[in-house]
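Justification of computing resources. Each target in the renewal requires a structure prediction run like the one illustrated here; the chain below, 386 residues long, is used simply to show the kind of job we budget for.
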Amino acid sequence: MATRKKHKTLTKPNLILIATLLVTAPLSGCVMLNEASSEDLQDGELVIVTYDVLALSEDMISGFEESSGLNVTMLKLDDAGSILDYLIQNRGNTNVDLAIGLDNTYLQTAIEFDLLEELDLNKSGMSAPGSFPGRSSMDPLEPYDGPLAVPYDMGYICLNYDTEAVDGENLSVPTSLEDLTGPEWRGKVALPSPVSSSPGRGFMLASLDYFDWQSDDGLQFSNWWSDMVANDVVITSGWTEAYETHYTGGYGEWTEGYIGDAHITVSYCHSPGVESYYNGNWTKSATLDIPKTSLFQVEYASAVSGGNALYAKKFIEYLISPEVNSMMPYENLMYSVLDGLDLPEEDGYRSNSQIPAAPASIPMEDIDDHMEAWLDQWNSAVTSGG
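Resulting structure tokens:
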């Protein structure tokens, strides 16, 4: 029997150093892997940069190592924004082969910076809209279907609320974003920042569509975010802090550092299903399906320019294979991108997961053209609010 090898994750001191460099280095500079990390890089090793909550199991990684003969090293950063920043800082001088976790709100920027390598991969088995009712609006190839990125999971970013706290007596279920600026919601909403968080960025984009940014140059959008700051909204650096630390409706109450001051947060429309699945068909979290406040998210795997494209291709082929990608609802708590696969039925996973009736829609071209201005506008709104 072959002995299974454990894949390596870069140590916390290394990550702290990298994070410090990302904050302090100008975008035009380059950040190198530190000396200890460089010693890990050798022939036959696949180095993956990804986000800190990517939950591919040890068995899944070991299965790839055994079948490919490669060793896997994971460089885990905070979120998709950190992945993009890292690739930009290390452009043309990187020892990373594969990026996992850029989504359709970050991908176009990575393409414009020429950070990714083209791959010829078969995507014919990926689900198309209408393959079955539960996913009639979800097409993983719709945001991007080119050679620079391959979808591996997907879902809808949206607001979640705590049904025990928002019970119609103490608090009523909001029917608009404007409701959240009222005094009853003061300090009770936690939203991840669009600067560093992909769910946060997705929600910011949805709010632009909600307020019809093209009609007034985003004035209503800016005013709403300023009003939210004046209403003591909790803005966090990422999804984990918003959901685990502040949100009262999820599993955070069993985690260290839990505060529990927010009854609404940004997560996914299927997050209540995940809560139910891991709580024996019980959840107090629910989707808040306000029109144009959700956004379809696709997450991608891409070969990194300057890395080993062959190694990256081997892992992507493994990641989108039926035996691996069908496990995305369990491994990474997202929808599989393969045709005919839905969320599991057991323990309320599927029944507590909602497809939004009227999601927001912003083309990737607009995201690329306007993202910098939108982030500046958002930053001005939240720093002037209150």
